[in-house]
Design a protein that fits this description.
The structure holds two protein chains of two kinds.
Chain A: H1 12-59, H2 61-64, H3 79-104, H4 106-111, H5 114-131, H6 142-159, H7 163-168, H8 170-197, H9 208-219, H10 223-233, H11 237-267, H12 272-304, H13 314-331, H14 336-354, H15 357-388, H16 395-420, H17 430-438, H18 444-451, H19 461-490, H20 502-522, H21 527-546, H22 556-575, H23 587-597, H24 614-634, H25 652-672, H26 686-695, H27 720-735, H28 753-774, H29 780-784
Helix pairs in contact in A: 1-3, 3-5, 3-15, 5-15, 6-14, 6-15, 8-9, 8-11, 8-16, 9-11, 9-18, 10-11, 10-19, 11-12, 11-14, 12-13, 12-14, 13-14, 13-15, 16-17, 16-19, 18-19, 22-24, 22-25, 24-25
Chain B: H1 14-21, H2 25-38, H3 48-52, H4 55-59, H5 63-70, H6 80-87, H7 110-121, E1 128-130, H8 131-142, H9 148-162, E2 169-171, H10 172-178, H11 184-187
The chains are: A mainly alpha, B mainly alpha.
């Protein structure tokens, strides 16, 4: 996962100093680790002595208590008590420091992918521990790997899976995952068996079934490795989702093949019936895993519907339900990975509609953090486990394996692509095929599966493990390091760093409807037809059930729009530190200060962000500043039990919308009354009060001299003439009084009806405003509003 | 499909159509069968009511527009060649267009597809999507759940983002530019018509 490296890499020499410091720190940590393990062994040595003492002393009272009177220990050393958590923390700390360190040395991280560096670190640490004379802890224990290290990575992948490209390419992905993996497994297993038959190699004792078992273990593309490498090369979305999707979905195949061959290796034969059962088992494993995951996903979504009063633990539900899905699937030997993916993908749309913004951020960052640490740890442990294990190096076997892996993958990809391209609209080019073949990396899953093999039943376990590690090293180092330059060389399309614009969203939805319509006209029940049906079903039944309150009816476009606006507002505040903000001045002055700054037409700055007129920026900034002020004040007394639901937050996006509307309308009216200066209204007309209340309920109670500038009247006064108009409109829209809402009805296309409508609506208001401005501004604000507002 | 079997003989101007639109004979046959199925009264041409009889099209938020797009302005009947020509927009794009001498932009190229989509927005055919037209589309897609203000905001923002020459409307080039990252060749193709 890419880190932000910005600040540190300033000057050349200054750059290396922090890096050096970090390396020193790491070395210190390593030394401490080894010292402690030595200390642990010495303290564990003393324990058996004590035991002897006690056992001897049972029958003999005099010698029972061997308490030698020594001085009261001021400082004692009690390593056993904390041994396991301490060592775990040390490993995690090491992993994180390593990750930090790599990014401080920028040149290194450009050439060598992180995964390689981490394996090297693991090798070093393992070597250090070995040198210290200690037993290397069996860190890549399969249980630890499958239950603790793997789930965060998969959940992160599943939760943030880009559903649309995934579904669009699902057929291709499935074919690669299922047929491709099967082909790889049988090809590698079969040919290896042939190789083993060669007398000279000394491998006769490896039967066919163990070979096939090995083939199935080594053939699966590993999601962790793929993620680690592909993250850094920023390849285009299609290829990324193809390889990555394949690595996720082939888990079901691997599970079935592994269990099949493991069971029958001991028996010795596989019959046709077994083969059939295996096929059925595959379907059960895959579909069962997805079913379990989806069920837990719906449960999580349903639970999140009720969490509006306990926002603090919202993220926990997502994590725990997903983990339970994984464990439940593993319980029945179903595919845990597919369960996790299904759970994450199903949960996400509903949970995100229900939870608060902060919970959403929490989930995102916790997942990224855990998966990042997990990935780092996995690679380090791979290095350590390499140093550790008893290796049985057999040149023939290992080289045959490596070559066969490559060959099988290439043949498989080419053959399958030629079949797939007949059914695809956008064909896969040769370049694409090459990247897919080259991106078939093996990783820690293969190693763990090999590690799981029972030593008694499989005498060749050591040979297998050695070969697996060699293949992993080869793919990660050679393929991992060279894929980036190859991508550059072949000029493969890169990922487009684009923020999705609202236009794209609108047009994409429009095109969806269009294509569905065309398909219906043609009588063809294609892709769009079923997607449309699913969407309708979703909207009609599922959303109502799983999403709380009003948001269940919110169309996707609106949700997208809100998200965009919020993101943009936050970005503006984060980046707009230098711009002048009007400080706490009385309203008249601020009014006149602000007005000349506002330009009716936004200047064409950079097109990355759609430009906003300056006034709007400032208004948004004010809103956010006031929001942040309030947060800061609240945090003075932080107690997690009294962390109230932010009364502000749920309505925040609506609020933002309203504010922007205010500003928009104001801008338009300003355009029309360009040469008119509008003297400010006094601050406390009922409209202003209401405006302030609406924006900031607490602020109302604060005195104006409180030194909280953003909450002052500034907010309301610039729009004093307009807030009236706006609220009028609002109220009307809310009450759905069709008659009055003349302003912006849809008319049948009559070309320029749009701008006309504006004029018509604003003209009477303009007149009134003009009159009002020229006359007494204050109290007449009331006359504008016909009906009483909300209290 | 209809119980009337049709062969290529029934299809008028089959050769010409195949040449013009790039459909294969099999596809043309299938489309002709579908045409005859839709044409319930067996008049030899289609009217808007025939389209509306397809239930899913009636349910489609922009169903009305789609139907209108088939019929050139002012006409109320649609014959088979026109039907096929419109549907030709949705053929998958070929990489190489070896046909020279044909029109410069075949209907199923990226530009052709985008032009067709643009026409669905720009109902008055003035070459621009005005704010009101955009609002209509948004209203149609989102139904009654959305307030006027929200639609306004979205339309405002959309125009702000896309409108490069500041005429408060989206021209075809601006439309095309705003969709440059979307894979139109994939999105606007039906596999059936290959």
């Amino acid at each position: 996962m890419p880190l932000r490296t910005g600040s540190r890499s300033s000057t050349g020499f200054g750059r290396s100093l922090p890096g050096l410091g970090l390396l020193l720190l790491t070395v210190f940590v390593l030394l401490e680790c080894s010292v402690l393990s030595v200390g642990a062994s010495s303290s564990s040595d003393t324990r058996p002595h004590k035991k002897d003492n006690n056992s001897v002393g049972v029958g003999n009272h005099n010698i029972t208590v061997h308490h030698i009177k020594k001085a009261f220990p001021v400082l004692s050393f009690q390593y056993d008590y904390i041994k396991i958590p301490f060592e775990i923390s040390l490993w995690v700390l090491l992993a994180s420091l390593m990750k930090l360190g790599f990014h401080l040395i920028p040149r290194l991280s450009n050439i060598v992918p992180e995964s390689c560096l981490l394996i090297v670190v693991g090798l070093l640490v393992g070597g250090l521990i070995r040198l210290a004379g200690e037993d290397v802890p069996p860190v890549l224990d399969s249980k630890l790997f499958f239950l603790c290290l793997l789930p965060p990575i998969i959940l992160d992948a599943g939760y943030f899976l880009p559903i649309r490209p995934f579904m669009e390419n699902l057929g291709t992905i499935l074919i690669f995952a299922v047929v491709g993996t099967l082909w790889n497994a049988f090809f590698i297993g079969g040919v290896l068996y042939g190789v083993c038959q060669i007398k000279a190699a000394g491998l006769d004792h490896i039967g066919l079934l163990p070979c096939l078992l090995f083939g199935s273990v080594i053939s699966a593309v590993d999601p962790v490795a793929v993620l680690a490498v592909f993250e850094e090369i920023h390849i285009n979305e299609l290829l990324h989702i193809l390889v990555f999707g394949e690595s996720l979905l082939n888990d079901a195949v691997t599970v079935v093949l592994y269990h099949l061959f493991e069971e029958f290796s001991m028996v010795g034969t596989v019959t046709v019936l077994d083969g059939l059962l295996a096929v059925i088992s595959f379907l059960v494993v895959a579909l069962g895993g997805i079913f379990v995951g989806a069920m837990y996903g719906f449960l999580a979504a349903f639970t999140s519907r009720f969490t509006s009063h306990t926002r603090v633990i919202e993220p926990l539900f997502v994590f725990v339900y997903s983990y339970m899905a994984y464990l439940s699937a593993e319980l029945f030997h179903l595919s845990g990975i597919m369960a996790l993916i299904a759970c994450g993908a199903v949960t996400r749309p509903y949970v995100e509609a229900n939870i608060s913004h902060k919970s959403h951020t929490t989930i995102k960052y916790f997942l990224k953090m855990w998966s990042s640490v997990s990935e780092t740890l996995i690679f380090i442990f791979l290095g350590v486990a390499t140093v550790d294990g008893n290796h049985s190096w057999n040149w023939t076997f290992v080289t045959a394996t490596v070559i066969l892996c490559l060959v099988a993958r290439v043949i498989g990809v080419i053959a399958l692509t030629s079949v797939i391209n007949k059914f695809r609209i956008v064909k896969l080019t040769t370049k694409d095929q090459f990247i897919i073949a080259y991106g078939g990396l093996r990783g820690a899953i293969a190693f763990s599966l090999g590690f799981l093999l029972d030593k008694d039943h499989f005498a060749m376990r050591e040979i297998f493990l050695t070969a697996i590690i060699t293949v992993i090293f080869f793919t990660v180092f050679v393929q991992g390091m060279t894929i980036k330059p190859l991508v550059e060389l072949l000029a493969v399309k890169k990922k487009q760093e684009a923020k999705r614009s609202i236009n794209e969203e609108i047009h994409t939805q429009f095109l969806d409807h269009l294509l569905t319509g065309i398909e219906d006209i043609c009588g063809h029940y294609g892709h769009h037809h079923w997607k449309d049906k699913l969407n309708r079903f979703n909207k009609k039944y599922v959303k109502k059930c799983l999403i709380a309150g009003e948001r269940s009816k919110e169309p996707q476009l609106i949700a997208f729009y809100h998200k965009m606006e919020m993101k943009q507002a936050i970005e503006l505040v984060a980046s707009g530190g230098g711009a002048k903000l009007p400080s706490a001045v009385p309203s008249t002055v601020s009014m006149q200060n602000i007005q000349p700054k506002k330009t009716p037409a936004p200047k064409p700055l950079d097109r990355a962000l759609p430009q906003l007129p300056k006034g709007r920026e400032e208004e948004i900034r004010k809103i956010l500043r006031s929001n942040l002020q309030r947060t800061r004040q609240r945090l003075r007394s932080y107690n997690r039990h009294t962390l109230v639901a932010d009364p502000y937050e749920d309505g925040f996006s609506d609020l933002l919308l309203k504010k922007q509307k205010m500003i928009e309308l104001e801008k338009k009216i300003k355009e029309m009354t360009n040469h008119l200066t509008v003297p400010a209204a006094p601050p406390d007309s009922p409209t202003m009060r209401r405006a302030r209340l609406a924006s900031d309920p607490q602020a109302y109670n604060m005195k104006p001299t409180d030194g909280v500038p953003a909450i002052k009247v500034d907010l309301a006064s610039p729009q004093s003439p307009d807030s009236v108009n706006m609220f009028d409109e609002f109220k009307r829209a809310d009450q759905q009084i069709p008659g009055e809402d003349q302003g912006l009805i849809m008319r049948p296309p009559a070309g320029s009806s749009g701008p006309n409508a504006h004029h018509k609506e604003d003209e009477p208001r303009d007149q009134q405003k003009l009159m009002r401005c020229l006359s007494d501004p204050g109290p007449s604000a009331d006359e504008e509003e016909g009906e009483p507002f909300l209290p | 499909m209809g119980s009337r079997g049709s062969s290529m003989n029934n299809v008028p101007n089959a050769e010409e159509l195949m040449q013009e639109t790039g459909f294969s004979a099999a596809h043309l046959l299938r489309l002709h069968e579908r045409f005859e199925f839709l044409d319930r009264d067996n008049r030899g041409h289609l009217s808007p009511e025939d389209f509306e009889a397809v239930r899913e099209v009636a349910m489609n938020p922009i169903g009305g527009r789609i139907i209108c797009s088939f019929f050139p302005p002012g006409q109320e009947t649609l014959d088979f060649p026109s039907f096929v020509r419109i549907l030709a927009h949705f053929r998958p794009t070929e990489k190489h267009r070896a046909r020279d001498g044909a029109q410069s932009e075949p209907a199923n190229s990226r530009t052709g597809k985008l032009k067709f989509a643009f026409q669905l927005y720009d109902l008055d055919r003035d070459g621009k999507i005005s704010r009101a037209e955009l609002l209509q589309v948004l209203r149609a897609m989102m139904g009654i759940q959305v307030t006027e203000e929200q639609l306004q905001s979205i339309a405002e923002r959309a125009i702000q983002e896309a409108d490069l020459d500041k005429d408060d409307a989206i021209s075809f080039d601006e439309f095309r530019k705003s969709l440059e990252k979307v894979n139109i060749e994939h999105k606007m193709s039906i596999r059936f018509l290959e």
